Give the backbone structure.
Amino acid sequence: MKILLVKLSSLGDVVHALPVVQDILVAMPDAQIDWVLEKSFAPLLSRHAGLHRVIPCEIRRWRKSIFSAVTHKEWRDFKADLQREKYDAVIDLQGLTKSALVARLAKVSPGGKRFALANQTEGSGYEAPTRWVADVAIAMEPHIHAVQRSRELAARALGYTPLALPDFGLKTRQAADVNANRQVALVHGTSRADKEWPLDHWVELGRRLQAAGYQPVLAHGSQKEMDTSLRIAAGLNNAVVWPVLGLDALTDRLAQCAGVIGVDSGVSHIAVALDLPHVQIYNFDTSWRTGPLPAAAKAPRQLSVFAKPQPTVDSVWQAWLACTEGAS
């Protein structure tokens, strides 16, 4: 069976959808699964062995220059790449107009169907064209975690029972740095300023980590985030500021760390997918929807911490201690 998954962006949303691949392959071992997403996030999927083909697009960029000759050519090339296969099932996991457009452009085999969300769920974006395009629109429980939403949609579309626990399926390469397992990545960068944590909190947290024998390492993806990394590192003794890394290399680096502490961001969600000891910091009460799922074991490896206007250093530190105890 040939299946196309449509989840274009953002990074955190793509990570949340990853368990769908493993769910399908366990239920249907011979399935061929392709995935369409924004080109900037495609390197992450190179770490997933279960995918047959990754089809990149740049809809975000194309919309800014819709009438240019370059955009027209790139759009034609993308469309040709997308339509190389005919699919037995096209599943729009995103529920937006742009994902509906991609799902509509994809070719289906005789008897093939397009599946999509029939309704909006709490805290998520949703646009009506997704159900207009679909052959089958599936109604979802409104109050549902982002990971579970994608898993349930795919399972109901294809008629299987998902795995008891999500398997994100990321495979990483061995790091050359033998000291990496005493490093803790601090992920301060996020796309929204109101999700940020104060700089002095990061410095104090870094000092506590150093006193406990860890080396803080700082990840970033822009010049602004690099400047923040350097300011945090300046307040610490032995912190390391990583260079800007592609998503594949960043995933490898994170996988070798002792754990990750970060704000609500795509990189933090990668830490969840890697099953690292992880604390996710929330200034809004949205962790129920996007944060680490409740642990099956008594001792959690991953926790979210929420408070207004933001969590204290001590609350984050206590959560870190709980996660590392669970990892030991």
Q: What stands out?
A: The chain has two domains: 2-158, 180-327.
